[in-house]
Write a sequence for this structure.
């Protein structure tokens, strides 16, 4: 028996799964995207229509448990001058609440212009012949934005940020 074969028999195969949930936080809509179990590909998941962050909280916690999420990536909309505005503070605080309640590590990323890029992608799809109504675009936009910044994060194109101003 080759030595490597014996080692394989003694050490069970370890499957590393790193399912990541991205959250594009908004006061009326919360976009969600999930990575695959290998943590390589991001897919838009859902858009929660809410009146307050408290409405999204239990649904997101249930999703984290159901999908065995191991990392949270929350988009923080920094201002164009890199300053932290109220929207960025709210998104970061929401992410911290979710992380504390779920026990899942939190990563904050700069997501400014992610909704713009997602909208441009939908416009391109419509120009390509896809039938998209205004309502369909509105219902998908935030999840597509979340998938966009999640994919950039997974690809190493988007670094984690820290906010000292919370």
């Amino acid at each position: 028996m080759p030595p490597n074969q014996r080692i394989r028999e003694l050490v069970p195969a370890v499957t590393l799964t790193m399912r990541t949930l991205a959250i594009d936080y908004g006061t009326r809509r919360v976009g969600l995207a999930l990575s695959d179990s290998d943590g390589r590909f991001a897919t838009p998941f859902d858009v929660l229509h809410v009146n307050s962050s408290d409405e999204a909280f239990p649904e997101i916690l249930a999703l984290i448990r159901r999908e065995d999420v191991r990392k949270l990536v929350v988009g923080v909309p920094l201002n164009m001058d890199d300053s932290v505005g109220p929207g960025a503070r709210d998104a970061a605080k929401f992410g911290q609440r979710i992380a504390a309640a779920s026990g899942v590590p939190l990563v904050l990323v700069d997501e400014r212009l992610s909704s713009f890029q997602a909208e441009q992608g939908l416009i391109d799809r419509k120009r390509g012949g896809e039938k998209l109504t205004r309502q369909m675009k509105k219902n998908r936009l935030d999840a597509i934005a979340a998938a966009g910044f999640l994919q950039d994060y997974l690809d190493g194109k988007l670094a984690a940020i820290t906010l000292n101003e919370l």
